Amino acid sequence: MMKIFQMIRQFGTQIIMLVVNLILYIFKGIQYLFSLPSLIYTKINLFLKGSNVVIKESLIALLICAIGDLFAGIVLGNMTFFLKTYPGLMVIIPGAIGMRGNIFGSFGSRLGTHLHIGTLSPKFEISDILTENILASLILTMILSVLLAVIAYIVCFIFHFKCISIFDMVLILFVAGLISTIIMLPITMFISLKSYENGWDPDNITTPLIAAFGDFFTLPSIILSVILVSFISGIYLIKLTIFAVVMIVVVYGLIYGYTNKGSLKNIVKQSTPVLIVCSVLGAFAGGVLNTSLTTLLRNQTLLTLVPLFSGESGGLVSILGARLSSALHSGLIEPSLKPKEHTVENFSIIIALAIVMYPIIAIMAETSTIGFGGIGVGYPNIISISFISGLILILLMILVVYYISSISYRKGLDPDNIVIPLSTSLTDSISTVILIIVSLTILGVMVI
Questions:
Q1: I want to staple 102 with a disulfide (CB 3.0 to 4.6 A). Which of 9, 62, 333, 421 is the partner?
Q2: What pLDDT, on a 0 to 100 scale, did the predictor assign at position 393?
Q3: Which pLDDT value is given to residue 389?
Q4: Distance between CA 421 and CA 280 in Å, rounded?
Q5: Do 169 and 91 form a contact (C-beta atoms < 8 A)?
Q6: Would you say 415 and 203 are in contact if contact means Cβ atoms under 8 Å apart?
Q7: pLDDT for residue 392
Q8: Exposed / middle / buried, residue 412 (Cβ in 10 Å: 0-12, 13-18, 19+)
Q9: Distance (Å, rounded) from C-alpha 359 to C-alpha 193?
Q10: Which residues contact 377 (CB under 8 A, 6 or more apart)?
Q11: For residue 137, how many other CB atoms are within 10 A of its CB?
């Protein structure tokens, strides 16, 4: 009987302890829930204090980038005549815009890295590093202009899109590339060198600003080159002669770049395969847009949003790519498979910037459409489209950028030549698909 009483007492004691522990656990849980806002506020406050300069510099650059992208969006939104008169033009536009950002964004990133490690002076002085980077950018522009034209023509052929001739497409992109290069080379050097000289981190502002200027000048350059090429369209012999000269110049540039000694060879050799992949992705993005061209022409806000969304996404991704590249070169982060504290901090900065920027560009797209007499899709709709599409894209791309950076660095390749062009091109193509899908989902019957 005593054993039974002891068992009952032990069981009762255990029940009481269980109840007490449960009450304490619930109390701690309630206490934690009540303290959670304070903890979140403290963590956010610490994050903002630690990243204040980066966020401020990047946000200013992204806002300026948004203005350039808005101009590109307005131009694209009013290119109805050219898009209808010159079939296939839409296929080359994303690739052409992306190519400017890829080539000159990488150029700026390389200059930023050289400035950080002290191998380049922020003064405007002739040096081997600067000369080789300028030549590499010019050679890559010529090569990629021709390759993008060929790839876009193949895409049109495969998907049975109506298209202008291959001669016209090559000449349009080559002339547009030369016009853009003449403008973009001095702008890129000025932004990179002057930002560093004035105490700004080029990694935070160079690539989005360069992308903004690239977006700003690319579409007008394409329109101007279309007009110039149209003057010789009826004179076949002249067109064929100019085409032959262009091909000779491009082949010579490719041979010169690959046979040259020093960093010029490394830049051209490492960048060309990556930029070919980028051109394929850009042409794919153009094909997606061309497939949805009727929908986009009926909903002008979406057409205006395309360069804004692509440009801002590319800007965010390129900021992350430039920062990770410099951190790898400087030894601040290790190229490990698992992102560590400094890397996660960079991820958080990009996500914070994305949360701010995507609603802003949506408002800009809708306001400009209404301002120019177009019919918008409504602020709630366009903000939802931009914000949801943007977060899906950025959460995916921050991991893609990190692993491209780490793997390329571990393989002995320079991330400056690979990360920005490859990641921004992936961003362009993926962003187009995500934006179209989310738009169809949110607007439903309206855009079908």
A1: 421
A2: 92
A3: 93
A4: 12
A5: no
A6: no
A7: 93
A8: exposed
A9: 32
A10: 299, 301, 302, 366, 443, 446
A11: 23
For residue range 361-405, what is the model confidence (pLDDT) as tens digits? 999 888 888 887 777 788 898 899 999 999 999 998 888 888 888
Cα(330)–Cα(407) distance, integer angstroms: 16
In degrees and rounded to multiples of 5, residue 258 shows phi and psi of -80, -25
Q: What is the DSSP letter of 446?
A: G
Q: CB–CB of 122/58 below 8 Å?
A: no
3-state class of 428 per DSSP?
helix
Residue 377: what pLDDT? Answer: 81
The residue extents of the domains of the chain are 53-447
Here the tokens at position 394 are 């950025």
* 251, two tokens: 């082949």
DSSP one-letter code for 262: S
Q: What are the tokens at 444?
A: 């439903």
Residue 15 to residue 34: CA distance in whole angstroms: 28
Which amino acid is located at 195 in the chain? S
Q: Give the type of residue at 356.
A: V
What integer pLDDT is reported at residue 416 of this predicted model? 64
Query: Helix 300-330 to helix 89-117 angle, to the nearest 10 degrees?
Result: 30
Put simply, whether the predicted model's pTM sits higher than 0.85 gets the answer no
DSSP-assigned states of every residue in 279-317: HHHHHHHHHHHHHTHHHHHH-HHHHHHHHHHHHHHHHHH
Please list the ranges in the chain whose pLDDT falls under 50. 41, 47, 445-448
- Cα–Cα distance measured from residue 152 to residue 138, given in angstroms and rounded to the nearest whole number: 21
- Residue 310 CA neighbour count, 13 Å, CB half: 35
- Residue found by looking up tokens 């930023």 in the block: 112
Three-state secondary structure string covering 37-89: HHHHHHHHHHHHHHHHHHHHHHHHHHHHHHHHHHHHHHHHHCCHHHHHHCCCH
Query: Amino acid letter at 136?
Result: A
For residue 327, the 8-state DSSP code is: H
